[in-house]
Amino acid sequence: MSNGGTSPASGIITRSYKPGSIVYFENDKSEYIYVVKAGLVILTSTKPETGEEVKEEVKPGEFFGVKSSLGKYPREETAQTVKETVCLVLTLADFERLILKNVNVVVKMLRIFSNQLRRIGRTVREVLGESNTVNPEMELFKIGEYYYRVGRFQQALYAYKRYMEYYPDTKYSDVAMKRIREIDSGRAEENVGSDMSMDIPEDPAPRESADVDMTDFSLDDPGASSGEDMFQDSNGGAESIATEMDEFLSEPVDSDLESFSFDDEPAGETASGADITEKFYDAMSSFSQNNFETAKDLYESILEQKNLKNDSEKKIYEKAHFEIGRTYYKMKKFKDAINAFSLLLKTFPKSENVKNALLHIGMIFYDTGKNEKAGTYFQKVASMEPKDEVSRNAMKYLKALENK
Amino acid sequence: MLIDEKLFDKFGVEFSPGEIIFCEFEPGNEFYFIQSGKVEIVKIINNREKTLDILETGDVFGEMAILEEEPRSASAIALDHVKVLRFHRTNFDTLLHGNPQLAYKLLVIFSKRIYDAKRRLMILLLDDPQAKVMDVMNMLAEQDPHIDMQEAVTLHITIQDVANWAGMQIAEVQKILTHLNKLGKIELFNDRIIVRNIKDFQRLVNTRRKNMYS
Lengths: 404, 214
Hints:
The complex is a heterodimer of chains A (about 400) and B (about 210). In chain A, a hairpin with a 6-residue loop joins strand 4 (about 40-45) and strand 5. With about 400 residues, chain A is of the alpha+beta class. Chain A folds into three domains: about 15-100, Sandwich (Jelly Rolls); about 135-195, no CATH class; about 205-400, Serine Threonine Protein Phosphatase 5, Tetratricopeptide repeat, CATH 1.25.40. Chain A is elongated, with a radius of gyration of 33 Å. Chain A has helices spanning about 65-70, 90-100, 105-125, 135-150, 155-165, 175-185, 185-195, 205-210, 215-220, 240-250, 255-260, 270-290, 290-305, 310-330, 335-345, 355-365, 370-385, 390-400, and strands at about 15, 20-25, 35-40, 40-45, 55-60, 65, 80, 85-90. In chain A, the strands form two sheets. Chain A has a four-stranded antiparallel beta sheet with strand order 1-8-3-6. A four-stranded antiparallel beta sheet of chain A has the order 2-7-4-5, with no helix packed on it. Chain B is of the alpha+beta class and about 210 residues long. Chain B has two domains: about 5-120, Jelly Rolls (Sandwich), CATH 2.60.120.10; about 125-215, Winged helix-like DNA-binding domain superfamily/Winged helix DNA-binding domain (Arc Repressor Mutant, subunit A). In chain B, the strands form four sheets. In chain B, strands 1-10-4-7 form a four-stranded antiparallel beta sheet. In chain B, helix 2 packs across helix 3 (about 100-125) and helix 5 (about 160-165) packs across helix 6. Chain B is elongated and about 60 Å long. The interface between A and B is large, with 54 and 49 residues.
């Protein structure tokens, strides 16, 4: 093809430029799209983050001016030739016709655009201070938890199922499975929908377990009053387990409860809601990475929280009672662990974690060689409905005790 | 845009109202083309669900999945009975070769999204809160081709919207808007803001931006 004029075959205009010619300026509005046929074009733009000038070469066979033309916005760069240059000048209609016949070009462009969009997205997140290193596994679970808490079970179910599909053997798969069953069986609506999130009265089986009175079964256990006590500073002697618990409870740790309010106050800063939830998940995450010290600190600060403003925060507050006990257990701080579990049993006797707390108390006795006490707890847990993972664990411990 | 009927037999999927099409943070390998119905794009931010967009017939979503697998950055939920075409990344090339029109449409969508994202970045990078708030209004005015910049401009946004765009706290935005209101630069309503002289705002922000770089 010769320089200049219209190519008769396609109707597309070719234009020749002397070196140093401006094809268009930044901020110009125009619908033309260019293809370099021969020569070289330099695009000069400003990097928004720093204001520095960025130059990009466009070689023969390459397009420029595509995005602003398609998106119908002003040119973002100035296009200037550096040699004798020939360009094809396409209208939108020309461009469309041309690329419809060259889909490979489109696919290539789409990949470039997609990359650019990702890069800008990353910069935006950086500027907003949003972390780019989020853990999608954890976040997906959190989405499920969000919908679960607000009672949108259909959406929660989707998120939990996806979580199980992609991350079946991870930290929260037990919780996710539990939630899925709960929602499928229709139990979740009653749990979450209830005004006081601490009440879980619906299903008869958990109710039985929820009503466990520590005095009841501790008296059944002759070993419990045998006078041996693992905790030297806990007034050993002939106290039953229940008394043991009571003593732990008389320690300052529960004084916070006096000021703890269940009232649905409008609450101070909007930040606190995100705060307590964030803390909880951070703590769970630390726990899963064996950072028990961090997890403990986070749970502690949740337990110090007052003025919980909605059901979901109350739920987290309740769960933190169990989780901190579990964390202490992992740290082998058994006394603190017993303390925490006792507080949970006293404060939230209907908590869904009651059974698991009892199991953990048994485990503490087991680990410290108080086999009889341990056995009492494991038996209690094993007898509690429904027969779930916690029951199975208790059974395992009972077997282990037999062989001990 | 016309889509081959046969395509729907092969790639068509339907969703009922409230159904999640995909969820934030799940791995994304497919992108979607709305044939009918409305799809809400939402994100959980600070323990609240925020609507980012509502898409309708002819719109595309999930398009970031065409390059490589990446966790979804937002969730898509069917608002009513929704029919979509769902394409996996591995079908992408074949699909586009069979439907160049779709390829063209995607190019246009990407062009617009890149520009919008860059424009938003420009706002966020400003170092002065008042300039950020003004530039949000500039951006919204630029987006509406029917707006006559020579006259007072009515923008249908709330303080919350401005705060989201500017990446600022609502309280701070409120303060700035109240101030601008007092100066007679804008009129503040619950559901809209009227800017007396948008060209004034554009000039101020441009100067600010230039000074920032120099």
